[in-house]
Design brief:
mainly alpha; 2 domains; 2 strands; 76% helix
Length: 220
Protein backbone atom coordinates (compact mmCIF):
# COMPACT_ATOMS: atom_id res chain seq x y z
CA UNK A 1 0.00 0.00 0.00
CA UNK A 2 1.44 3.37 -1.01
CA UNK A 3 0.98 6.64 0.79
CA UNK A 4 -0.06 9.43 -1.53
CA UNK A 5 0.17 13.15 -0.86
CA UNK A 6 -3.22 14.84 -1.17
CA UNK A 7 -3.63 16.97 -4.28
CA UNK A 8 -2.63 20.60 -3.89
CA UNK A 9 -6.23 21.71 -4.41
CA UNK A 10 -7.32 19.73 -1.33
CA UNK A 11 -4.73 21.22 0.99
CA UNK A 12 -5.06 24.57 2.70
CA UNK A 13 -2.21 26.89 3.72
CA UNK A 14 -1.42 26.84 7.44
CA UNK A 15 -1.53 30.64 7.67
CA UNK A 16 -5.10 30.65 6.34
CA UNK A 17 -6.11 28.04 8.90
CA UNK A 18 -4.45 30.12 11.63
CA UNK A 19 -6.38 33.22 10.56
CA UNK A 20 -9.65 31.31 10.60
CA UNK A 21 -8.85 29.98 14.07
CA UNK A 22 -8.10 33.49 15.33
CA UNK A 23 -11.33 34.88 13.83
CA UNK A 24 -13.37 32.03 15.32
CA UNK A 25 -11.69 32.48 18.70
CA UNK A 26 -12.33 36.24 18.66
CA UNK A 27 -16.01 35.71 17.79
CA UNK A 28 -16.33 33.23 20.64
CA UNK A 29 -14.71 35.67 23.08
CA UNK A 30 -17.10 38.43 22.04
CA UNK A 31 -20.02 36.06 22.58
CA UNK A 32 -19.12 34.95 26.12
CA UNK A 33 -21.28 36.27 28.95
CA UNK A 34 -18.78 38.65 30.63
CA UNK A 35 -18.02 40.37 27.31
CA UNK A 36 -21.71 40.57 26.43
CA UNK A 37 -22.26 42.38 29.74
CA UNK A 38 -19.44 44.75 28.86
CA UNK A 39 -21.02 45.43 25.46
CA UNK A 40 -24.34 46.04 27.22
CA UNK A 41 -22.56 48.65 29.37
CA UNK A 42 -21.41 50.43 26.22
CA UNK A 43 -24.96 50.22 24.84
CA UNK A 44 -26.22 52.09 27.93
CA UNK A 45 -24.19 55.19 27.05
CA UNK A 46 -26.63 56.71 24.49
CA UNK A 47 -29.70 56.32 26.77
CA UNK A 48 -27.79 57.93 29.66
CA UNK A 49 -26.82 60.89 27.46
CA UNK A 50 -30.36 61.28 26.11
CA UNK A 51 -31.80 61.30 29.64
CA UNK A 52 -29.18 63.82 30.77
CA UNK A 53 -29.99 66.08 27.83
CA UNK A 54 -33.60 66.37 29.04
CA UNK A 55 -32.14 68.05 32.13
CA UNK A 56 -35.07 67.67 34.52
CA UNK A 57 -35.30 65.91 37.91
CA UNK A 58 -37.05 62.75 36.69
CA UNK A 59 -34.84 62.02 33.68
CA UNK A 60 -31.73 62.91 35.70
CA UNK A 61 -32.75 60.33 38.29
CA UNK A 62 -33.29 57.70 35.59
CA UNK A 63 -29.87 58.51 34.12
CA UNK A 64 -28.34 57.87 37.55
CA UNK A 65 -30.18 54.54 37.74
CA UNK A 66 -28.82 53.46 34.35
CA UNK A 67 -25.32 54.51 35.37
CA UNK A 68 -25.67 52.46 38.57
CA UNK A 69 -26.73 49.45 36.49
CA UNK A 70 -23.65 49.97 34.32
CA UNK A 71 -21.47 50.03 37.44
CA UNK A 72 -23.01 46.74 38.58
CA UNK A 73 -22.28 45.12 35.21
CA UNK A 74 -18.69 46.38 35.53
CA UNK A 75 -18.30 44.38 38.74
CA UNK A 76 -20.36 41.43 37.47
CA UNK A 77 -18.50 40.85 34.20
CA UNK A 78 -15.16 40.75 36.00
CA UNK A 79 -16.50 38.40 38.66
CA UNK A 80 -18.00 36.05 36.07
CA UNK A 81 -14.83 36.06 33.97
CA UNK A 82 -12.73 35.01 36.98
CA UNK A 83 -15.33 32.58 38.34
CA UNK A 84 -15.89 30.74 35.05
CA UNK A 85 -12.39 31.07 33.66
CA UNK A 86 -13.61 33.27 30.79
CA UNK A 87 -10.91 35.93 30.97
CA UNK A 88 -9.91 36.89 27.44
CA UNK A 89 -7.91 39.39 25.43
CA UNK A 90 -11.16 40.84 24.09
CA UNK A 91 -12.39 41.33 27.65
CA UNK A 92 -9.14 42.98 28.73
CA UNK A 93 -9.59 45.45 25.88
CA UNK A 94 -13.36 46.01 26.15
CA UNK A 95 -13.71 46.36 29.93
CA UNK A 96 -11.52 49.46 30.47
CA UNK A 97 -12.74 50.89 27.15
CA UNK A 98 -16.38 50.65 28.27
CA UNK A 99 -15.57 52.35 31.58
CA UNK A 100 -13.71 55.20 29.94
CA UNK A 101 -16.36 55.75 27.26
CA UNK A 102 -19.10 55.94 29.90
CA UNK A 103 -17.14 58.31 32.14
CA UNK A 104 -16.13 60.48 29.17
CA UNK A 105 -19.71 60.75 27.90
CA UNK A 106 -21.10 61.70 31.31
CA UNK A 107 -18.37 64.24 32.13
CA UNK A 108 -18.61 65.95 28.74
CA UNK A 109 -22.41 66.11 28.92
CA UNK A 110 -22.31 67.35 32.52
CA UNK A 111 -19.91 70.13 31.51
CA UNK A 112 -22.17 71.01 28.56
CA UNK A 113 -25.14 71.27 30.94
CA UNK A 114 -23.15 73.44 33.35
CA UNK A 115 -23.26 70.86 36.14
CA UNK A 116 -19.46 70.75 36.47
CA UNK A 117 -16.70 73.16 35.36
CA UNK A 118 -15.33 72.32 31.95
CA UNK A 119 -11.78 72.06 33.29
CA UNK A 120 -12.96 69.28 35.65
CA UNK A 121 -13.81 67.15 32.66
CA UNK A 122 -10.57 68.08 30.85
CA UNK A 123 -8.31 67.17 33.79
CA UNK A 124 -10.08 63.93 34.66
CA UNK A 125 -10.16 62.76 31.05
CA UNK A 126 -6.55 63.83 30.45
CA UNK A 127 -5.49 61.66 33.37
CA UNK A 128 -7.40 58.65 32.02
CA UNK A 129 -5.87 59.03 28.54
CA UNK A 130 -2.38 59.49 29.98
CA UNK A 131 -2.56 56.41 32.21
CA UNK A 132 -4.03 54.32 29.39
CA UNK A 133 -1.15 55.31 27.13
CA UNK A 134 1.37 54.66 29.90
CA UNK A 135 -0.02 51.17 30.47
CA UNK A 136 0.09 50.42 26.75
CA UNK A 137 3.71 51.59 26.61
CA UNK A 138 4.57 49.46 29.65
CA UNK A 139 2.90 46.42 28.08
CA UNK A 140 4.94 46.90 24.89
CA UNK A 141 8.07 46.80 27.06
CA UNK A 142 6.88 43.67 28.86
CA UNK A 143 6.21 45.59 32.08
CA UNK A 144 3.12 45.63 34.26
CA UNK A 145 2.02 48.58 36.39
CA UNK A 146 -0.02 47.48 39.37
CA UNK A 147 -3.14 49.35 40.46
CA UNK A 148 -2.19 51.44 43.48
CA UNK A 149 -4.32 52.50 46.44
CA UNK A 150 -4.69 56.09 45.22
CA UNK A 151 -6.06 54.80 41.92
CA UNK A 152 -8.68 52.73 43.75
CA UNK A 153 -9.77 55.77 45.79
CA UNK A 154 -9.93 57.82 42.60
CA UNK A 155 -12.26 55.27 41.05
CA UNK A 156 -14.51 55.17 44.14
CA UNK A 157 -14.80 58.97 44.45
CA UNK A 158 -15.24 59.38 40.70
CA UNK A 159 -18.07 56.84 40.52
CA UNK A 160 -20.00 58.25 43.48
CA UNK A 161 -19.35 61.80 42.27
CA UNK A 162 -20.71 60.97 38.83
CA UNK A 163 -23.87 59.52 40.39
CA UNK A 164 -24.30 62.75 42.37
CA UNK A 165 -23.81 64.87 39.25
CA UNK A 166 -26.35 62.73 37.39
CA UNK A 167 -29.02 63.07 40.09
CA UNK A 168 -27.98 66.74 40.41
CA UNK A 169 -31.16 68.23 41.84
CA UNK A 170 -31.95 68.72 45.51
CA UNK A 171 -34.17 66.17 47.22
CA UNK A 172 -35.55 65.93 50.72
CA UNK A 173 -33.96 62.92 52.38
CA UNK A 174 -34.92 61.60 55.85
CA UNK A 175 -32.05 61.50 58.34
CA UNK A 176 -32.58 60.35 61.90
CA UNK A 177 -35.38 62.42 63.43
CA UNK A 178 -35.86 64.83 60.56
CA UNK A 179 -35.75 65.38 56.82
CA UNK A 180 -33.20 67.57 55.11
CA UNK A 181 -32.73 68.95 51.60
CA UNK A 182 -29.70 67.36 49.96
CA UNK A 183 -28.06 69.04 46.98
CA UNK A 184 -26.77 66.04 45.04
CA UNK A 185 -25.10 68.22 42.43
CA UNK A 186 -22.92 69.96 45.01
CA UNK A 187 -22.04 66.64 46.62
CA UNK A 188 -21.15 65.21 43.24
CA UNK A 189 -18.84 68.12 42.41
CA UNK A 190 -17.16 67.77 45.82
CA UNK A 191 -16.57 64.06 45.30
CA UNK A 192 -15.20 64.67 41.81
CA UNK A 193 -12.81 67.24 43.28
CA UNK A 194 -11.55 64.55 45.68
CA UNK A 195 -11.29 62.15 42.75
CA UNK A 196 -9.16 64.73 40.95
CA UNK A 197 -6.72 64.92 43.87
CA UNK A 198 -6.32 61.15 43.91
CA UNK A 199 -6.12 61.17 40.10
CA UNK A 200 -3.07 63.42 40.18
CA UNK A 201 -1.47 61.42 43.00
CA UNK A 202 -2.03 58.09 41.26
CA UNK A 203 -0.81 59.47 37.91
CA UNK A 204 2.46 60.58 39.54
CA UNK A 205 2.81 57.16 41.21
CA UNK A 206 2.12 55.34 37.93
CA UNK A 207 4.71 57.44 36.12
CA UNK A 208 7.29 56.94 38.89
CA UNK A 209 6.63 53.19 38.86
CA UNK A 210 7.02 53.06 35.09
CA UNK A 211 10.31 54.97 35.15
CA UNK A 212 11.57 52.76 37.99
CA UNK A 213 10.68 49.61 36.07
CA UNK A 214 12.45 50.94 32.96
CA UNK A 215 15.54 51.71 35.05
CA UNK A 216 15.54 48.17 36.46
CA UNK A 217 15.38 46.59 33.01
CA UNK A 218 18.35 48.68 31.86
CA UNK A 219 20.50 47.67 34.84
CA UNK A 220 19.58 43.96 34.75
Amino acid sequence: MSLETPPAAETEPADRLDKRTVRRSTREEFANLPNLLTLARIALIPPVMILMAENDPMTSFYAAVLCSIAAITDWLDGWLARRRGLESLVGKFLDPLADKLLVMAILVMAAELGRIPGWFAVLLLAREITITGLRALAASEGLQIEVIEAGKWKTAFQLTGIIGVLVYYSYTVPFGFGSYAVNFGAIGVGLLALAMIFSVASAISYFAGFMGAIAETKTS
